[in-house]
Amino acid sequence: MGTAIQVGDRAPDFELTAADGRKVKLSDFRGKKNVVLYFYPASETPGCTMQACAFRDAYSVFQELGAEVIGISGDSVERQQGFQKNHQLPFLVLSDPGNKVRQRYGASSLFGLLPGRVTYVIDQEGVVRYVFDDMLNFKAHVDEALKVLRQLTNATA
Question: Which residues catalyse the reaction (predicted)?
Answer without folding.
Answer: 48
